[in-house]
Amino acid sequence: MRKYLLAATALCALAASANAESVRMSVGSYNLNNLPFPVAASLGYYKDEGLDVTTENFAQGGSKVLQALVAGSTDVAVGFYDHTIQMQSQNKHVVGFVMLARNSGLVLAGTNDTDFDPAKPETIKGKKVGITSPGSSSDFFIRYYLKQHNLSEDDISIIGVGSGAAAVAALQQGKIDLLVNYDPAATIVVERGLGKILIDARSDQGAKDVYGGIYPTSVLYATQEYIDANPEVVQKVTNATVRALHWMKAHSAEEIVEKLPDDFVSGDKQTYIKAVEAAKAIFSEDGKFVPGDLETPLMVLKSFNDAVAKATIDLNTTYTNTFVEATASKPAQ
């Protein structure tokens, strides 16, 4: 009898797998702003929703994911909200449907002997500044900093170095003088004694100091066409991701890291746990977009992006809370 039960269980599992809905999800990097996505996957929440998720990691940064989405080679992007504004200025309709990180998470770090002093912005002149990739939010960060202080992009060299260990190595090896990046890179730089954080936008106050307001970053977004054609899939993706946000809120950094695959963890485990602890404040608790906060990335992009500055941007069409609100009405799992 046990043999027949095992066989029946296996057949049920195969049937469930066969009936799973496929969705391609791409992530710009495994920086911690995107952490709710791998947490949801590791906890099996997408599978629980009957989804067969194919994941691609573009380590170069979120701009590569955006290109894949627009080209139709991925269905859902784990990327940054400001890209939805950028796309609207190009007459392309990309819509955020789950907020993952409600605040920036970005820092500007330098070597211990750097002579760059944020109180004297002109001291950045001549520096090689590492970002994740051209067109990414880290790129926007440094361009906005220059604009704020009447400096030119020609005053520095902007170099794409990726994120995580690759970004840290670029600073350590002297390929760059300054690094604009996220956790875990930010915490690794400090914990290993490789450098210091000079501008920190991880806290709400830090973001307000840098941008003048809260700067939402990581979201799940898709084209309006995909959302219209696949509302049930988008709802299931939302259900799983919001469930992960609730789980993260209720668990410690150490418990979160324990659920991640080993190849996701950059550097040594204890440093990574510290990085997750430092980043916990940036995560959304419910996945909802806060309309007032969306004004900040629009203002930043307008300051240096001519296409955005000249376009009439309707922020109401860059996001939807419809799917998150439907998730909130479901019984707790």
From TrEMBL:
Keywords associated with the record: Signal
Top-level taxon of origin: Bacteria
GO biological process, one term: alkanesulfonate transmembrane transport
Subcellular location: Periplasm
Pfam families assigned to the protein according to its UniProt record, in alphabetical order: NMT1
Cell wall biogenesis/degradation as UniProt keyword: no
Family: Belongs to the bacterial solute-binding protein SsuA/TauA family.
Protein name per Swiss-Prot or TrEMBL: SsuA/THI5-like domain-containing protein
